[in-house]
Design brief:
Layout lengths: L1 H27 E4 L3 E7 L2 E6 L2 E4 L5 E7 L3 E11 L5 E12 L2 H6 L4 H17 L4 H6 L1 H16 L4 E12 L2 H43 L1 H17 L13 H9 L19
């Protein structure tokens, strides 16, 4: 009988110790991952920041707040904003930030993720309202940098570093899209006309240079004449081409007394008078 009572007493103590261990051990020891830090409060007062790895706590006296040090992402909801040139657009963005000081992130601000999200929304509206539509579309990197600098400056006392801010999408009204399409079409037509005019101008310059060269070297005109004959003979034409020597024009010149262009059938100093 006594052995039975001793066994029951031993079993009771074992169960009691096991229950206490199951309650106290999770309160005494915490394991933090490499990217986590624990902000410890002892009786409500800040005690220190520990981690990663195994940390020891006083049960029911120490309380901890886990802080993730990885880069976090906030999706800034779409905002309807009026730009500097009075165009209504819908914009949204993504904010990348990380905690660099776990103590400030817990003590200085309540719910630092939510606070950073709200700050990003207001800053996005403020910056987009200060730029024109063309600048918002063409200089997206500059707008992103301005938003990132403002948010980072205001979150610095919270122990938060804003890595980058990216304006993801800019939605324009349909009438503005049509106006921009007409503007782009008109701009392309203007460029096409300018390019065509430049081509005509360059071609005219080359023709003037060619005429000057042929005037200085009359044989160049004869070579050009032969080249034209070659080009025509290679085509499938339905007409006959009979080449005549340029010297035959001398006979008609002497008979009629007509002044021919310089370099054609005679010398440049030929006066064209009848003999």
């Amino acid at each position: 009988m006594e052995n039975g009572d001793e066994f029951i007493n031993s079993l009771t103590w074992i169960i009691t110790i096991a229950v206490l261990a199951a309650i106290l051990l999770p309160q005494m020891f915490k394991i933090l991952r490499e990217y986590e830090r624990a902000v410890i409060f002892r009786l409500g007062k800040y005690k220190g920041t520990k981690g990663p790895g195994l940390i020891f706590l006083i049960p029911f006296i120490d309380k901890i707040e886990r802080v993730d040090l990885r880069v976090l992402t906030i999706n800034v909801d779409k905002q309807e904003v009026i730009t500097k040139d009075n165009v209504t657009v819908n914009v949204d963005a993504i904010t990348f930030f990380r905690v660099i000081d776990a103590e400030d992130a817990v003590i200085q601000v309540e719910q630092y993720i939510h606070a950073t999200s709200m700050l990003a929304q207001t800053t996005l509206r403020s910056i987009v309202g200060q730029v024109e539509l063309d600048e918002l579309l063409a200089e997206r990197e500059k707008v992103n940098r301005n938003i990132q600098e403002i948010i980072d400056r205001q979150t610095d006392p919270w122990g938060i570093k804003v890595v980058s801010v990216e304006v993801r999408d800019v939605v324009l009204p349909e009438n503005m899209k049509r106006a921009m399409a007409r503007q782009a079409e008109t701009e392309r037509e203007r460029r096409a006309k300018v390019i065509n005019a430049e081509g005509e101008f360059q071609a005219a310059e080359r023709l003037v240079e060619a005429a000057t060269m042929m005037k200085e070297a009359p044989m160049a005109l004869q070579l050009r004449f032969l080249q034209t004959m070659t080009d025509i003979s290679e085509e499938n034409a339905t007409f006959a081409f009979i080449p005549l020597p340029m010297e035959m024009l001398e006979v008609f010149k002497n008979m009629s007394g007509v002044q021919l262009p310089p370099g054609v059938g005679g010398n440049e100093d030929d006066s064209g008078e009848e003999s």
